[in-house]
From TrEMBL:
InterPro entries for this protein: ADH-like_N (IPR013154), Chloroplast_QOR (IPR052733), ER (IPR020843), GroES-like_sf (IPR011032), NAD(P)-bd_dom_sf (IPR036291), Quin_OxRdtase/zeta-crystal_CS (IPR002364)
Stretch forming the signal peptide: none
SUPFAM superfamilies in the cross-refs: GroES-like (SSF50129), NAD(P)-binding Rossmann-fold domains (SSF51735)
PANTHER family: ZINC-TYPE ALCOHOL DEHYDROGENASE-LIKE PROTEIN C16A3.02C
Protein name: NADP-dependent oxidoreductase
Pfam families noted in UniProt: ADH_N, ADH_zinc_N_2
Molecular functions per Gene Ontology: oxidoreductase activity; zinc ion binding
Domain of life assignment: Bacteria
Enoyl reductase (ER) domain residues: 12-310
Amino acid sequence: MKTNAVIINQYGGKDVLEDGVVNLPELGEKQVMVQVKATSVNPIDWKLREGYLKEMMPFEFPIILGWDVAGVITEVGSAVQNFKVGDEVFARPETTRLGTYAAYTIVDEALLAKKPTNISFDEAAAVPLAGLTAYQALFEHGSLKASEKVLIHAGAGGVGIYAIQLAKIAGAKVYTTGSEKNHALLKALGADEVVDYRKKDFWDVFTDIDLVFDTMGGDVQTNSFKVLKENGRLISIVSAPDENLAKEKGILAKSIWLQPNGEQLSKLGEYLATSKLRSVIGATFPLNREGVYKAHELSETHHAVGKIVIQGE
């Protein structure tokens, strides 16, 4: 079938975004077709658009960006067991050239989760990529446990908002960095202490940290080694940490890449359904070229609060 979508036919700046129509492949036996009610913007979207990831992801054009979806199932494959037409779902689909800035998108059944009835499509669409990234960084790779001290950089960012809440649910002592205007929000999400990075160096404030969740890279990552206790952990989602520095201090330090996971997303869905976890949406835009252009423009500032959502029809 054909779907309307916002596409790119070449790599470049925001000007390469265009409205288009794309042919979707036949539905696989364990796949579903989802009518997109909402998607969201993540930095990977515009990094791929710029061409930074073309060697890692050598996709053919046209490319539909976007790797979050919340919507309604309109068709199911012959072997789909746990979902039916009409179900409201959300997902972080596989990373393919046919993303979610589209009227319709295809998702593997194993990556789907039921959308909680108490949250909107916008709120659900904000969760998958960022929420799963936070979950996997903290627990799969960071082995965060109750009563441990975790430092989450850029707490008001798309990933940070979920990381703070998930760490608090786990019973950790949560520290974060953020500009002063976001302190009330960060404390409401569960942060025990917030440092304004514009006024203080976090390494002068925090000590004996068990786990650092690095969403920034660069000097922030390097200086994070100063606050970690011996045998601490540093998990980055931006760049590979300095191996020599890690070895010198006896620290587990690694860079991770998100793996889509329907079971983990369903776990996040349970937290959303019981209001232990919530989305923070900083801005919404329509699903068309102009809307995506403005959404990318905001994301590229690195100062968006929470998630940027793109609303489908």
